[in-house]
Amino acid sequence: MTAITEDSAAPEAERPRGNALAGAAASAEAVPVTPPGARHLVLVDGSGYIFRAFHALPPMTRPDGTPVNAVFGFTQMLSRFLMDHRGSHIAVVFDASRVTFRNDIYAEYKAHRPDPPPELVPQFALIREATDAFGVACIEQPGFEADDMIAAYARAFAADGGEVTIVSSDKDLMQLVRPGVQMLDPIKQKPIREAEVAEKFGVPPEKVADVQALAGDPTDNVPGVPGIGIKTAAQLITEYGDLESLLANAPKIKQPKRREALVGNAEQARISKKLVTLDENAPLTAPVEALAVKPPEPAKLAKFLQEQGFRSVLARMGLGEAAGDAGTRARNGAIAAHAAAAALPSAPEPGSAPYGPYETVTTLEALQAWIAEAMAAGVVGLDTETDSLNALRARLVGLCLATAPGRACYIPLRHVAAGGGQGDMLAAPEAAPPQIPFDQAIEALRPLLTDRSVLKVLQNAKYDLEVLCRAENGGIAVAPIDDTMMISYAMEAGRHGHGMDELSVLHLGHKPIPFEEVCGTGRARVTFDKVPLDKATAYAAEDADVTLRLWHILRPRLREDGALALYEQVERRMVAVLRDMELAGIKVDGAELARIGEDFSQRMAALEQEIHELAGRPFNVGSPKQLGEILFDEMKLPGGKRSKATGAWGTDASVLEELAAQGTPLPRKVLDWRQLSKLKSTYVDGLAAAIDPRDGRVHTDFSMAITSTGRLSSTEPNLQNIPVRTEEGQRIRRAFVAEPGHVLMSADYSQIELRLLAHLADVPALREAFEKGQDIHARTAADIFGLPPDAVDKEARRRAKTINFGIIYGMSAFGLAGRLGISPAEGRGIIDAYFGQYPGIRDAMERLKEEARLQGYVSTSFGRKLWIPDIGAKDMVRRAGAERAAINAPFQGGAAEIIKRAMVRVPGALKAAGLSARMLLQVHDELVFEVPEAEVEQTAALMREVMEGVVTLRVPLAVEVGTGRSWAEAH
């Protein structure tokens, strides 16, 4: 057996999903969403997990030679669960000994089980020590199994009105499932409720013990009744009700063998029932309130993790740099330099070290020394320098490393002489500055950038990961990573921007060197490969230094701010997901775009002619100034307002809509012309220019930290705002096509924000409508207008639909009146009727506004804080807008988080199922895939399963799936 250290083993959270432990990192995503302040107990089956971790992970030893692979797996699981679970109480439950009261009932119970492997024995105590170091209650009771203690605590907690989640896939625990008590399979990341138990055993949970008593269990030496398996046992229990009724009627059973087996083994069946029935009255070793979640003591936890050599867990817990054995990590001929680096003093405080001077690395020997230093540090700041802001077109020019605050370097890779470069015929014939040959540098860096025991810290990591994935010489898949931009965004979405310069000023009090100071402005601007190395080093290395300093400050705050689970389980995982989506792109039919563009041009020309005729003379339709003169100076239409700044007439869409509503045809024609003009310039011409000639696909950029609600935004080009319901929008979507042999698949959450409304406000009528699959708008119309369901007409449904969606956006009576074309008094009447029928919604809205006023933010069901900056504004208009934002944010934010949680699961689910579909786009509540024609049915079923099962709400999630050769056909 070859022992390895933790540092050379891939951390569990970064392993492929096929790994037996991979599910634990994300398992808590399926823990039920509970309202703030609710009581929720998480019981982890520690004994079951110890053996799973031991057999799943390769042998590992800590520096003194003690085996620790099970300890490492358990520690990874527990750290992830503490980051992720939403419960108020948590405990890990262990078996205290092999002998329990069941051995008194049946001496052979579990008697055939072998002793644990010698390498596992010393790890039992360490795992209990790990539980204590994390500040988690450790439950065990001599004479009882862990399952009995889980049963007792689950009963006690549920009896007090709390909810319980049992983290285990052990079939013996399924008898405990009931309303308020569910299980969570940590491998499959699936909740186990009554339906799943019935599917496995053929009976509801309360009858599982009866089925097990008949079928027996060879694993535990439970005898059961010979010849009767689970399926037959389920049939018998279903028919006779319970074990005793079956045994009482056994002599009457017609099948001779079955009758003889039951009659002859009746007492054995009764003994088996005692063995498999969990003791829900087992004595509690600690009061329930002692299980309340509490933060670990940082010093105590850090000491334990350092003693085990678990450097990656130390880094992820935000407990600073982890010391380790440098000798085990020597790479690329840098053993001597590495040994010296291991003796480096501890890092200075993030704000105390000076910003530079930094080192320019121009030799392979110097680079190897920096690589060794980074590996010894265990955490390294990383940044790339390129010649373009577009990650898919950028060439890697240089790379920066930071190993401690104030200690950073720049590694130039493709710098040319200042003013020189390809195509610059006037450049002086100067030699390029000294630098390591590109291929040599990349190969030297590859082990560091792919070493899973060294955490790479980046700012806006998606950009750098795409650049490095596309780098020549095979590209580099960097892992694992932390992203300071996303750490900040997870804590303070909407509160401020999350760019590096802004974060540096905010948290470090330091203004980084501006890009313009290095590369110039306007016509004098040069690309970064032409910047002299001294200036390039000062600018670039500072970026890596600032990023690492920000990490030291922001990473520990995640737990304090309640954002650790959000970051670890959603935002950080989204980086790699979006990277792959952007690299994949989506195919666009250029010829179809050209036909659409020609049609739009002809229609715009026809509209221009009509507009000119209505105006009485030709003018530039695209000129707001000329249009204002036509409408208000020449046509003398009422309602015009001049700008105080320019004196020009206002002609925005709201002005034209109001004029059109008064019956004037020209404004409506101008609105139609503007719509076509925008579609043509933005989507037809814009898409055509964005098609990558190398693959015929468009690669959008998904911005991760722009919106205040957690939603993604799409730019260059924007693919999220193409109209869905207009004919023109559908025509543009027809230009998005699948590769030959494939189809496009659209998987779209149905009315997800309304489902969140029904969940958050706990509206019984809406919950019932969603549970029964009713038309939610028709149901709402019947409720608020007092109509029989069969009397709801299209107009009533339209009004109900408008208010259903409008209520989420905090729509006023005046706003509703404008939407429906009615008086404000009628609008107020409808809103009053709505709130009268659904009082929980008004209560929820008022609660959200009050939360925003008191805290400055509101929260989604999943814990994301959504900051509302203007909630305390003195200006009434700004404050009213902030109140509407406070009402809307949890719904938009909750919907965004649900689809993100689905997105981080999709790649692993596809891989586990052996399917080759690619996720290409996310458009609000919709995911778009490119799927081989032969895999359509399996992929559609899998997407429904993943997307509908990603969270548990009070109402079911529903996903609509469509396919077609084009996006329009699929939607």
UniProtKB/TrEMBL annotation:
UniProtKB keywords: DNA damage, DNA repair, DNA replication, DNA-binding, DNA-directed DNA polymerase, Exonuclease, Hydrolase, Nuclease, Nucleotidyltransferase, Transferase
Record-linked Pfam families: 5_3_exonuc, 5_3_exonuc_N, DNA_pol_A, DNA_pol_A_exo1
Catalytic activity, reaction form: DNA(n) + a 2'-deoxyribonucleoside 5'-triphosphate = DNA(n+1) + diphosphate
PROSITE patterns per record: DNA_POLYMERASE_A
Keyword Hydrolase: yes
Region ranges (Disordered): 1-21
Annotated EC: 2.7.7.7
Domain 3'-5' exonuclease: 358-559
Domain 5'-3' exonuclease: 39-294
Domain DNA-directed DNA polymerase family A palm: 729-935
A biological process from GO: double-strand break repair
Role summary: In addition to polymerase activity, this DNA polymerase exhibits 3'-5' and 5'-3' exonuclease activity.
Classification via PANTHER family: DNA POLYMERASE I, DNA POLYMERASE NU
Family of this protein: Belongs to the DNA polymerase type-A family.
Protein name: DNA polymerase I
Organism: Roseicella aerolata
Gene that specifies this protein: polA
